[in-house]
Amino acid sequence: MRTLSNMLPTVLCGLAVVLTVGCSSLKNPATTDIAVTNAAVESAVAAGGSQFAPVEMNAARTKLAQARQAFDASDYERAMGLSDQSRADAKLAQGKANSAKARAAADALEDGIQILRNEIKRDKP
Amino acid sequence: MKNMPFKLTLLALALVAAACTTAPTTQLLDRARDEYRAVQESPMAASYAPLEAKQAGDALAPANAAAENRESAERIDHLAYIAQQKIALTREAVKQKSAEAEIAQAAKQRDQLLLDQRTAEADLSKRKAQIARNEATNATRNTQLAQQEAADAKRSTQLARNQTAEAKQDVQAAQAEAAGAQRMAQDAQARSALLEAQLSALSAKKTARGIVITLSDVLFGTDLARLNAEGMRSVQKLVALLQDNPQRTVLVEGFTDSTGSAAHNQALSERRAGAVRSALVDLGVGQERVAIHGYGETLPVAANDSAANRQLNRRVEIVLSDDKGTITPR
To answer: Which residue of A has its CA nearest to B127?
Structure first.
């Protein structure tokens, strides 16, 4: 471990180099990523994500906002990370909304069939 | 820049050393791996959400790689988080697809039910129609039955009425008969009362032979066979009696006293009996109802020793028959 403390200045220097290179090269991909995430969030909202998956929807919105802040602060890597998480949240919210709606429809149909069955049974002499 | 390869080597070493201090995995990654394993083992996910399962797998791979490469826990958790959300999305997709499958199945069921119901309704209406037809037939039959019953009742009523009328007639007839019988009884009574009266007027006597009416000598002229006025009145009474009792007949018997010859007396007795018969026949009594017999001086009722006794012996006795016209012979 002595080696590590001796090499600390070199390590810091290397990291700074990596970050600088990374920052400049990540700006465009981050822009695209946030745009895609924005579309995913809007799609989830349209699918009823706020109603059927409020936790995921909230998380998606919050993270998208944080991603934008990071982007504005030129922290593109962090922006992309938040954007990716936000998109995953938004997609899950949309999936939950869709499955909840399908379940509701199936249940309604089952109920309708049960009512129909009872009706038929009662009709039978 | 001569130092560059050395510096890079140092950097790599530094990264490896840093990785040494971090765990090769995180709690989040472990959880994501477990969840992914469950998804892979679920046959539902394979059939309902193969695409989502693959994307989850694709998302988990970089997390695993990051762990393998001993990248920062933050980085691993970030990737594991995204993988976890994709795995959850896979589960939601499975739920959605199975719900949709249920919907398809339910729709089929509903269609079948509706079809069944239509069939049942059709059968029911068919049955109802049949029942209605039967009821109509029954109603017609009942109506006919009721009509027949009404006719029967009418007939019965008529019969009863006729019977009542007959009974009434019977009663009337019986009453009439009773009245007739009563009348007859009254008549008979009246007749017998009348007879009694007439007989007592003729001073009749009841004897063993029946009722005997004696016309005495004083009713005839002496030695004559002709009734005097007094005698005719007695005969008229007798005629009335015979007319009231048409079933009775009479026997007229003549008697004399012993004065004169027996032959003369015999003739005289016969003539006197005949005189009485002539008088009766003249007054309307049928000849066949009057028999005569002369006994002459035989059968006196007193000794012929005095005028008074001889007068008793000179007589005509009229024997009245019973109701059947028979007279006990002497």
So the answer is: A125
Residues forming beta bridges with residue B249, ordered by sequence position: none
CA pair distance B134, B37, nearest whole angstrom = 71
Return the higher-pLDDT residue of A37 and B269: A37
Q: Do A14 and B92 touch (CB under 8 A)?
A: no
CA contacts within 13 A on the Cβ side of B54 = 5
Residue B327 resides in a domain: no
> Model pTM?
0.48
A91 touches chain B (CB under 8 A): yes
Last residue of a domain, one of B78, B109, B140: B109
CB–CB contact A89 B85 (8 Å): yes
Please report, as a single letter, which amino acid is at residue B91.
R
Say whether both B215 and B105 belong to one domain: no
Is B149 within a domain? no
Q: Does B104 share its domain with B201?
A: no
Site of tokens 């028979």 = B326
B253 and B315 Cβ atoms separated by less than 8 Å = no
Model ipTM value:
0.77
Range name among B13-22, B170-179, B255-264, B316-325 with the lowest pLDDT average = B13-22
What value does the mean pLDDT of chain B take? 85
Mean pLDDT in residue range B220-237: 76
